[in-house]
Design goal:
By secondary structure, the protein is mostly helical. Helix content is 77%, strand content 0%. It has two domains: 10-20 and 30-334, no CATH class; 352-564, Methane Monooxygenase Hydroxylase, Chain G, domain 1 (Up-down Bundle). The protein is built from 23 helices and no strands.
Length: 611
């Protein structure tokens, strides 16, 4: 029925066909804004469900297709249009493409071509929703709910989510048009929209802001088509609003894809924004003339807005796809690559060229593990500062350092595995096991600091707990012993000195005694203290326990050295029979010595004057 001039009612389900003006119901001004907000919110939620369902079902495939197509600008254009039509979000396509460009995987020219295609892809969604497809709304909702609730296959459930989202979008359009249709005779609503949309430039700015806030040009264009259908805006204002939606959709990728301190990450979103700004500046002065010409072809204001949206992006793509290399060169000159500071999570010493020489490769791995040790020592030292100062930023920084330690541990394990695939002599084999073991234990230490001690620090901050002076002094002294033991462990890993290994094991016994004594004192203070003191002492005990666990992991560096020197017993457990005999003998000797001492003390010294 397109182009027949028929004007059916909104209640018949023809979303974007104009309806004759009627009388507004009483008090429509008090409810129309809430109804509009609800309709827009439902439209945005439907778009979100469609986007999330497509990403879950086909996300990896779409990303792979986009990466393959980025080798050629024309294929990239088609891929951008297809991916965006499925995702219903040019922002999502822009973020995926920006990740390829920032990582150096693809050139800027095909990436800019993808964005041109993405802009066209968003118009395909609008075109599909601009036709009378209201009859499929209940079908989509029913099929989607059944697939989502009943299916056991993950992809089927994701497609059910897509169907539900599409049905909610169509339902939202019905709500919007019903609301606008009932309010089209309200003087206040017409006056407000007339003031906002009185000038094309103001329309462009308002629509750009709405699109930036909603993160969806599709939603804003559909809203504009609803306003045009209800005759709330003139055709010129409708096209100006569509221009603003196109401009606003280029702002979100610029904000979300940019990396602080890296100007090169802004090349793609700024290039996309420049094409949009150029197109809007070129079209805006001639908008009344363009509107008059298009009205002769399409008198329906809703269809007029949809067709203009598509034509604008297609013409813009045709105008820019050829000179893209010049634009890319200009952006590269304006936004040069900036050298970033060394990432602690990236290995420095793991040289892949020496994999054929295991002995040299093990030296490289050992140097990387020493770098891990430096990171763990920094974390351990700053842990007590974070616990005592209640510094949230320091807690977050320590957690980020643990992520770097985890990455280095994985890199070291893979590297050692790769260089030791061939047969090794006994010395290299033992050294490879020592490197792997020490790296794993350092990673465990980092996890205890991040998952346990930083959790205690956050709990202390949330509950505003303060340590007592005695408790704080005990924690500082105990923590210093652990830091000193970390130095010993690193020294053992470097030199294999048996004397240092003995010193570390002796420190373990001393730390156990210190921890037991500190726990007894804390329990005594807990029995005598207030509820606040009890809560503080509970944190003290948790910290002591976690520091002791850290020390146990550090002591593991000493055992291989002591085992090679034959300085370890097979077990710390003694034979029960031998233990009983030896214990009885010791008790008897102790009793005899005590009796001799008592006898000697009772004998008076002889008088010096007697014979």
């Amino acid at each position: 029925m397109r182009g027949t001039g028929l004007r059916p009612e909104v209640s018949q389900g023809h979303y974007f066909w104009p309806r004759p003006p009627g009388k507004a119901p009483p008090n429509v001004g008090s409810t129309v804004i809430l109804d509009l907000m609800g309709g827009v919110a439902l439209l945005l939620w439907g778009l979100h469900m469609v986007h999330s369902g497509v990403v879950r079902a086909f996300g990896s495939g779409l990303r792979h297709m986009l990466g393959v197509a980025l080798r050629n600008r024309f294929r990239a254009f088609l891929a951008g249009a297809l991916v965006t039509a499925l995702l219903q979000s040019s922002t999502a396509t822009g973020l995926m493409t920006a990740s390829f460009v920032t990582g150096g995987a693809v050139d800027l020219v095909p990436a800019l071509s993808v964005m041109l295609g993405a802009n066209v892809g968003t118009t395909l969604v609008v075109q599909a929703l601009s036709f009378n497809i209201s009859i499929v709304t209940p079908l989509l909702l029913c099929v989607g709910v059944v697939a989502f609730k009943r299916s056991t296959r993950t992809r089927t459930r994701d497609l059910g989510r897509v169907a539900i989202g599409a049905g909610l979008m169509l339902l939202a359009l019905h709500i919007l048009l019903g609301t606008l249709g009932s309010a089209e005779s309200a003087p206040a609503a017409r006056a407000l929209l007339g003031a906002i949309t009185g000038a094309p430039l103001l329309c462009l700015v308002v629509a750009a802001l709405l699109t930036w806030a909603a993160h969806s040009s599709v939603a804003v264009v559909l809203l504009v088509m609803s306003l045009a259908t209800a005759h709330f805006v003139t055709p010129v204002a409708a096209l100006a609003l569509v221009l603003g939606a196109n401009l606003g959709s280029a702002v979100n990728p610029l904000i979300e894809a940019s990396q602080p301190g890296n100007p090169a990450s802004r090349r793609l979103p700024i290039g996309n924004l420049l094409t949009r700004v150029t197109g809007c500046l070129a079209v805006l002065p001639f908008l009344p003339f363009i509107t008059g010409q298009l009205l002769q072809l399409e008198p329906n204001p809703a269809r007029l807005a949809a067709d203009f949206h598509t034509a604008f992006n297609i013409v813009l793509a045709l105008a820019f796809i050829v000179p893209l290399p010049g634009l890319a060169a200009l952006l590269t000159r304006w936004l040069p690559e900036q050298k970033r500071a060394a990432d602690p999570a990236i290995p420095v010493y793991l040289d892949s060229t020496v994999t054929g020489t295991p002995s040299v490769g093990l030296v490289c791995a050992a140097r990387e593990v020493l770098r891990m040790g430096d990171l763990v020592e920094t974390m351990l030292r700053q842990t007590m500062t974070a616990l005592l100062s209640s510094d949230r930023k320091l807690v977050a920084e320590i957690s980020r350092m643990d992520d770097a330690v985890d990455s280095l541990n994985e890199a070291v394990k893979l590297y050692v595995t790769r260089i030791t695939r061939d047969s090794l002599d006994d010395r290299d084999g033992h050294r490879a096991m020592e490197i792997m073991s020490f790296a794993i234990n350092l990673e465990h230490v980092g996890d205890i600091i991040d998952k346990n001690l930083m959790d205690v620090a956050n709990k202390k901050i949330r509950r505003a707990i303060t340590f007592s002076k005695d408790g704080e002094a005990e924690l500082v002294a105990f923590h210093q012993q652990v830091v000193d033991s970390l130095r010993l462990a690193v020294g053992i890993f470097m030199s294999g000195d048996i004397n240092v290994a003995r010193q570390l094991i002796a420190a373990k016994a001393q730390l156990r005694t210190t921890e037991f004594a500190a726990a007894e004192r804390n329990l005594m203070r807990m029995r005598e203290g207030s509820p606040e003191t009890i809560e503080s002492i509970s944190l003290d005990l948790d910290i002591l326990r976690d520091l002791k666990r850290i020390h146990s992991h550090l002591c593991s560096a000493a055992y291989p050295v002591l085992e090679r020197a034959g300085a370890l017993q097979p077990s710390r457990l003694r034979d029960l029979a031998f233990s009983g005999t030896a214990g009885a003998t010791k008790r008897a000797l102790r009793k005899a010595r005590t009796k001799r001492a008592e006898r000697a003390a009772s004998i008076e010294p002889p008088d010096s004057g007697t014979a």
